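Write out the 3D structure for:
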Amino acid sequence: MDMQVSFLDRLFEAGLLIDTGVEGLYGRSGQFEDVIAAFERLIDRFGGADGAEAIRFPPGMNRAYFEKSGYMKSFPQLAGTVHSFCGCELDHVSLMKCMDEGGDWTGEQKATDIVLTPAACYPLYPTVAKRGRLPAEGGLYDLQSYCFRHEPSTDPARQQLFRMREYVCMGTQDHVTDFRQRWMDRGVQMMDAVGLTVEIDVANDPFFGRAGRMLANNQRDQNLKFELLIPVTSAAKPTACMSFNYHQDAFGTKWGLELEDGSTAHTACVGFGLERIALALFAHHGLDVKDWPAHVRKALWG
C-alpha cells in the first residue's frame, strides 16, 4: 500500500495526475494523454491491417441492455447507475431544504435509463445482433470507451473511471480462439517494443458471492481468461494491463448472435487498460518522457 501511495503522490507532484478528492477519480495532464494517444497509435500499427470496424460508444449504456447482460447479477459491487432529479417544484423545495441542512439529498434522485458502461464491449453485442446474421467471415470490431467500476483505491492503477481499448471478434470457436492467441502474441511484442517486462497468466473476473467463486473457478479451469501482467506499484503483485477473453457462445446465446449458417456465434475480446499501460510506462521509464530510452520513444512517437 505504501508503494501505491508513494507512486500516486509522485504522479500528483509531477502534475501527471490531478487529485479530485475522490480515490480513483483523477484528472490527466497533457503529457499523460499524449502517452495514451501514442500507445493507441501503436495498437493501430499492430491491429489496423486486420480490417476491424471502428465503433465508439459513450461511457453510458442502455439500462435495459445492461440488465439483460447479467452484469448486475455477477458484479453488483462494481456497477454504477445514473440517477437524476425527476420531481416537481415542491420536491425541489424539499431537496434544497435537505441540502441546506446538510442532509442526504440523493434520496430525491431516481434511476434513469442510463447506466455507466462497465466494459467497452457491452453495448456492442445488442448493436450487432440488431443487424442480423454475421457475414461468412464473422465480425471484428475496434472499440474504445471510458468505463466505470466502483472500487475506490489509493492504487493509481485501480481507477474508478478509466479507458478501455478493445478488439472484439465474433465467429466460430476456432476463429475467435485463433484471434485471441494472435493478440496474446502481439501483446508481448508490443510491450517489448516499449521496454516493459511482462508475464501472461490465467485469470478470472471478480464474480460476487459464493456462486461467483464457482464461476471464477470454472473460468480459470477452462482457461477462458488470461491477463498480461506488468509490475507498476508492486513486483510481487503485478498489474493486469491487458486481458484476453474467450466467452464461448455465452454472448452469442444471450443476444442472438448468429453466423451465416444460423449457428450461434462464439466471441472473444482483447482489452487494453490504457491508463494502466501509461502508468506502467511512467513507473518503469520515469515521470518525464524526455528522459525515456530512445527506442521506447521511437516505438511510441516514431
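Residues 84-116 form one domain.
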